[in-house]
Structure formats: C-alpha cells, structure tokens
Amino acid sequence: MKKNPLNAMRYFKSIVFLSIMMFQIPLIAQELHLRVVLEGPAQNTLKNDDLMQTLPEVQLRSYGIPAPAGTVDMITVLLLNPQTNTVQHTLSGWLLKNGQVTNLAGNQVYLEAPEGTYNIIVKHRNHLPITSAKPITIQRQTILDLTNPTIAKPNSYIKHPKGLSMMIAGNVYDTPNELYAEVNAADMFIVFAAISEKRPEILIKEDLNLDGIVNEEDARIVENHSLSLRYTTAENK
After folding, report:
1. Which end of the chain is more exposed for a tag (fewer CB within 10 A), N or C?
2. Model pLDDT, residue 93
3. Residues 6+ apart with CB under 8 A from 147
4. Local confidence band at 175 (pLDDT 50, 70, 90 cut-offs)
5. What is the per-residue pLDDT for 134?
6. What percent of the chain has pLDDT over 70?
7. End-to-end CA separation in angstroms for the chain
C-alpha cells in the first residue's frame, strides 16, 4: 500500500509539536509594575498624572545615557529575603514623570522580576530608600504602588501635601550599595558647599529637586530634614 506523503508530513509535525510541549520549560518573566515619587521634584507640582516637575532626559542623553522620553532619573530596586533580609535580586529602571518605572530599554512600563515573596526597597542616588510595609509576592503582573502610604513602610517616606508618600530627599553622601542611610548635618554641609561652587552638572547628588542647579531650594530641603530626621533605615526595614 502506497503511503500518502501529506499524511506522513502531518504525522511528523504532530510529533514535533508534542515533543516541544512535553519538554519545553516555560520561561515567563514576572512583571513588577512599580510606582514611586521623589520628594523635591514632586513637592511643588501634583497635577493630573504629572507627579514630577523636571524632565532631564535631554540632559541625560547629553551624557550619552539613552533615557526614554519623560524620564526623571534612574532608580534601583532591591528584592530581599523576608526571613534573612539579605538581598536576593537587584533590578534597575527609569523613573518616569508620572511615577511609573520602566525597564532600562524603555519599552515596557514594568521591571522583569523573579517569582517569589520579598521585602522590597527602592533606592535613588540622593533620596532615602523607601520600603514596602510587608513582604510582596511577585507573580505574573504584580502592582506595587509606593505612593500609597498604606503600602510603604512608616518612617521610610514623607507625605506630599496631597497625601502621596514620597521618597525623602537629602541623602547625598550615602554610597550606592548601602542599605542604611540617614539625612543629617553632613548632607546639609555638602549641599551648601555645592551652592558656593555653582556646579552646573545635571546629575550631581546635591541637586535634590533635579532641576539642574544646586541652589537655596536644595539647601532648604536638606536643612529641614537634617534637623528632623535622625533615624536610619536599618530600623525601618
């Protein structure tokens, strides 16, 4: 009996398809949809969905940094083991003007994160870290809105007059990898010194409101905090 080549081809395709389905290991990236606000840039404006007053993506690009449109700055996210509080994963992304965080490629408004349950800390180069109030389970599409005071851990944020929780400005001498930080007189003196030098660089730490210049506004922010904030985030994790 002569075999039908069409049937043979269909049989072959079926075997290949079943083999792929049986042996393929699905690698599905979990989506962490993160929202966060920086004190300083957000202090003077809160209109509609525009939470940040500065848009330095042009200046960032002048430094050769391919920041997407609407970028305020880069942030770092630490995923910690809830039992040991040790860092399990580190994620980086662009903070956008509306408070959303996009991946570094700038094409998805979320970070790809491993599935699991973590304490989550968000860091910025001249703000104190903000922390989730309780462990967060990342699975499929997970939303973490740290502008909501009930989601952020008490004392790891300052409130905007309209009620949003913001990352506290003024941490200008903390090293990037430290979990613990504070705002104190040392930060204030560093900002005052930068005012006298009139340094114009957009990315310097002393520029607390991210408007491209260190002036009396930055000094006022750090001076207020250096007099009132005497805690470390080590106590607030």
Report:
1. N
2. 93
3. 35, 36, 37, 51, 99, 164, 165, 166
4. low
5. 96
6. 69
7. 76
What SS3 state is found at 46?
coil
| Cα–Cα dist 138/113, whole Å | 7
Which position has the token pair 């790809």?
112
The answer to whether 183 and 229 are in contact (CB under 8 A) is: yes
DSSP string, 192-214: HHHHHHT---TT-TT-TT-SSS-
The residues facing 47 across adjacent strands are: 50
**Residue indicated by tokens 């792929």:** 20
Supply the pTM of this predicted model. 0.79
Phi then psi for residue 230, to 5 deg, are -120, 20
State pLDDT tens for residues 22-66. Answer: 444 344 579 999 999 998 876 655 454 455 545 566 667 666 777
C-alpha span between 228 and 231 (Å, rounded): 9
Q: Tokens standing for 65?
A: 């940094």
3-state helix, strand and coil shares in percent for the chain, rounded to the nearest 5: 25, 25, 50
Distance CA 12, CA 59 (A): 57
Residue ranges of alpha helices (H) inside the chain are 5-23, 57-62, 185-197, 216-228
